[in-house]
Amino acid sequence: MHRLLLNRDIYTEFVQTYLPQARRFLWIVTADIKDLHVDINHQFQPLLDVLNDLVESGIAVRLIHAKEPGPRFREDFDRCPALINSDLFERILCPRVHTKAIVVDGNLAFVGSANLTGAGLGAKHKDRRNFEAGFMFDEREPLNELMQWIDELYLGEHCRTCQRRDHCPDPIIELQGHIP
Hints:
With 180 residues, the chain is of the alpha+beta class. 30% of the residues lie in helices and 24% in strands. The protein is built from six helices and nine strands, in the order βαβββαβααβββαβα. The longest helix has 16 residues, at 140-155.
């Protein structure tokens, strides 16, 4: 399956439908992140609550983003004990990340223009949200390639030669005394 999703369909047909259904792991890569809310069984709740519930259920969640989130996101985050205390939740910050990708269980992915925000993913009113596009797919070869690339980001493979370290608030790997 290879399917184009536009605007609100990103939210209704991918985020709302597949994120809460993760059974092994969920990887999210985004440049910007805000306090997105998700409609689960006709109740809106912060995405961070959904991620917290996944982690409490034994699902590994990896979040890679480019900049520190705003105060409302941080307030929601501080109310999620599993995201703070569990080794199943991994979060890194890399200012070079501009990718927007989500991988669910290594079986389904979304790659597109939308950041992890209500305006980006289509959760806001139709006259207030961004115009976004992306693809949902489940083909093994591109999924494996995307997951390998995300893993390289997470492991800091690009840190060794990064020329933006002066702008990095929290380098993934330290280079002092390290021989590349």
